[in-house]
Write a structure and sequence with these properties.
With 350 residues, this protein is α/β, with parallel strands linked by helices. The protein folds into two domains: 59 residues, DNA polymerase, domain 1 (Orthogonal Bundle); 279 residues, Aldolase class I (TIM Barrel), CATH 3.20.20.70. It contains ten helices and 14 strands. Helix 10 links the parallel strand 13 and strand 14. The mean pLDDT is 94.
């Protein structure tokens, strides 16, 4: 039984609200800046860590507030260096993050979750089989980055270089909290990471892609495409029925023209479903609207799904067809094959 605290989570307060809070209890307003730094620069998970506060003030905070931090629940380490971590949230649910190291390229990427479960029911996805319970709040997403960064430092002696919102859930259906987490990650008063090192991936919510553009975001956008015609995409991704490829292309073009941010297509190759040269030709057509990079991804099969990963030969032929038609393409070989690598696979075990 998870005991949920009735105290207010102090990470729900802005710095201005913290100033008011401390003035009301007779503390100088600079205490707000100190606490804010502990929370968002240093990633403190307890008031006891805040050693530049008086013991009396730390005790007051302990009595009246809480920090609803995520807690490591299970870690799986792959022979290829990939590390998947499962975290328990303060109210009980499980989510996961993945550290994907590519030491030769000095790239250390964390894949973070934004929702507990998902409502989009993509047929190939383990998370899509989980009921969506709630959105993660901004601090819970931020915690994943801080904790996996520490993991990267301890394991590889290197900090994270990239963040991708490609874990459990649809980030654009957790818009406010995702944007809040990116603020804390990129702000000079937070982790001060460059937004150009962040990519937000969506299954395709056209109106929210347009909202990203209107909000003038600085991070990169990825579309989880996985099929280059509506019939096939409808079959595996029900969201396409209300957000067709034509509608999505118009939204992404709008995003690109307003932001000039980098755009990529994520394309999982399924055997005998979307990996033919005809599929490649359809994909080439979708790469003519704006500059785009295609990431072809080997599938990590999950129990109960009727999909198999494409063969290396078919993937290589597919990728070469794109290159021959002047499409920038990268083939991402499956990582963590010896652990529960597929999105949602480890969290879904309970």
């Amino acid at each position: 039984m998870i005991e949920v605290s009735t105290k207010k989570d102090i990470r729900r307060y802005s710095q201005e609200e913290l100033v008011q809070l401390f003035l009301e209890v007779g503390e100088p307003k600079f205490r707000a800046k100190q606490v804010y730094e502990w929370l968002w620069q240093k990633g403190a998970h307890s008031f006891a860590e805040m050693t530049n506060l008086s013991k009396k003030l730390r005790q007051y905070l302990e009595e009246h507030f809480t920090i609803n931090a995520i807690k490591e629940d299970k870690v799986q380490r792959s022979l290829d260096g990939t590390i998947k971590s499962r975290y328990r949230l303060h109210d009980g649910p499980l989510v996961e993050s993945v550290l994907i190291p590519v030491p030769d390229d000095r790239r250390f990427t964390v894949c973070v979750s934004s929702q507990v479960g998902c409502s989009l029911t993509c047929k190939f996805c383990a998370t899509g089989r989980m009921k969506r319970l709630r959105n993660l709040d901004a601090a819970e997403i931020y915690d994943q980055v801080v904790m996996v960064n520490q993991q990267s430092l301890e394991t590889f002696d290197h900090p994270l270089t990239n963040i991708v919102y490609m874990g459990m859930g649809e980030p654009l259906l957790a818009y406010k909290e995702v944007m809040g987490s990116i603020h804390y990650i990129t702000s000079p008063e937070g982790l001060n990471m460059s937004p150009k090192r962040i990519t937000v991936s969506t299954a395709g919510i056209a109106k929210m892609i347009r909202k990203l553009a209107d909000d003038d975001v600085k991070f990169n956008l990825a579309l989880s495409l996985h099929a280059a015609d509506d019939a096939k995409r409808n079959e595996i991704m029900p969201i396409n029925e209300s957000n067709t490829l034509e509608v999505l292309m118009e939204a992404i073009k709008y995003f690109y023209l307003k932001t000039r941010n980098r755009i990529s297509y994520e394309y999982i190759a399924f055997q005998d479903f979307n990996d033919s040269l005809e599929d490649a030709a359809n994909l080439v057509k979708l790469c003519r609207h704006f500059p785009v990079k295609v990431n072809i991804i080997e599938y990590n099969p999950i129990d109960g799904a009727d999909f198999l990963k494409s063969t290396e030969h078919r993937i290589d032929d597919f990728a070469q067809y794109l290159r021959d038609h002047e499409v920038m393409v990268t083939v991402r070989r499956s990582r963590g094959k010896d652990i529960d690598a597929a999105c949602g696979q480890l969290a879904n075990k309970e």
